[in-house]
Amino acid sequence: MAWEFRKLGPGENVAVEAQRDPFAAPKWAPPVWHMPEGLVLLVNLVRVIVRTVVFLVRNIVPVSVLSGLGWLGYRFGWTVPVVVLAPAVLGLSGWVLADRPSFVRWVGRPALARWRLVTVYRRNWQPVLVTAGLTKVHKGREYLPSLVRVRCGPTSDRVLVTMLKGQAPDAWEDVTPNLAHGFGAALVRVRIGDRPGRIWLEFVRRDALAVPIPALPIPDASAVDLSGAEIGRQEDGSPWRLRLLGTHVLIAGATGSGKGSVIWSTIRALLPLMLAGLVEVWAVDPKRMELSFGRALFERYGRYSDDPKGGMVDLLEAAAEDMNARAERFAGLTRSFTPSREHPFRVVLVDELAFLTAYCPERDLRKRAESALAVLTSQGRSVGYCVIGAQQDARKEVNNLRNLFPDRIALRLDEDEQVDMVLGDGARDRGALADQISPIPEIGAGVGFVRLETTPDPVRVRAAYVSDDDIRDMVALGFPDVEAA
Ligand SMILES: Nc1ncnc2c1ncn2[C@@H]1O[C@H](COP(=O)(O)OP(=O)(O)OP(=O)(O)O)[C@@H](O)[C@H]1O
């Protein structure tokens, strides 16, 4: 449609639709006002002043320091600011040398957070959010979610965001790839914020778990905590502690995903208590691969079976029977379990659950194994029994005991829908991308996601790698008499 202007008087122009047809009804549009140049300049000047004041207030500390030093230099010469700065620089250097972690915590990280706030997040905030469709335009006005705070960790940034009124975290979860590319991060996860209407965006700058973690040192017996045995590292660099007391653990992962490293790191963490007679590991090893390496250890400090003709099922049934006897004995006496030599904490380790519950050709054995496992997992927690089951296939039809395992670990999985089957509904949307873990062993083996009790958000972890030599050393430690002979 073409428009033309009609001048009605000085400074009064009217925009009307250009019409070729002389008989058409006239169409009128609002007048276009002439804006005096001086007013335009004034408005722009006010804008610049407001922006400068906002910048100065937001950056009050660096601006005050720099202007103070500048003023000293101007008033008394450049040596004065240097003399003023020197003790501060010396003090900070001394701090770094004396206590680097506290310097990083109180100075390094906040300074990095400030820097990334200004140069990465605030700078790209509007264009990225507009492109990702997270802004709204209403009556010609653009509404933009606001950026509250940035915190920097060793490998990731956490950005606190106030969403638009009426927005939900799902809207952000749907566009995490856009946010990752927009802000130059490897990965973005959406976390619940400190109050309704707010979320934390976690921008992963680099993969802290990309390098294998060597086997952890065997702890002292007094340092072993059955409520949190250290078996690897979390993405934020803190130890990954696996709870064993009062729970059962399911480890799901495709072939080569590193289930063995989770199993062996757990045994390694328990070894001192096994040697002290306070923990027993009963191992069921249908694959005869992973666990057979430490067979001697289980036979001496627990039990071991790889017999497909019924030995493995017998072992499970013996465990269930013993557990029942223990439950009867403890009934009404105690509610919390403390391991002793008489009643050691018993870990029942099943390397491939699906073999016993789905693949075993004998129906009778399958049924017996399933019912022994169901008894152990449903009643064993409070009397010092913990079942650790590993399995390659997370599908429901393969393992319908899954829900009896309160704690579950998802290592690399073949399909995205298996993630929620293992970790529970919504886990993948909350960032548990177990199907995207690298199949290259050095990068992805032993890497997985867990859900901790304290937060519904899945946490990325990596188990330490216990090599064959490490296992040999552990076996040697378990047989000091043989070594001495
Ligand atoms: N935590 C780890 N860090 C680095 N490399 C690892 C780790 N765990 C395992 N690996 C490597 O990955 C390979 C596969 O590991 P592993 O045999 O434990 O997988 P799995 O899940 O038990 O497989 P399967 O189900 O086929 O037995 C191993 O050869 C090992 O070298």
UniProtKB/TrEMBL annotation:
This is S-DNA-T family DNA segregation ATPase FtsK/SpoIIIE. Pfam families: FtsK_SpoIIIE. One of its GO terms (molecular function) is DNA binding. It comes from the Bacteria. ATP binds at G253, A254, T255, G256, S257, G258, K259, G260. Keywords: ATP-binding, Membrane, Nucleotide-binding, Transmembrane, Transmembrane helix. Residues 237-420 form the FtsK domain. It comes from Actinomadura coerulea. The chain crosses the membrane at residues 78-98.
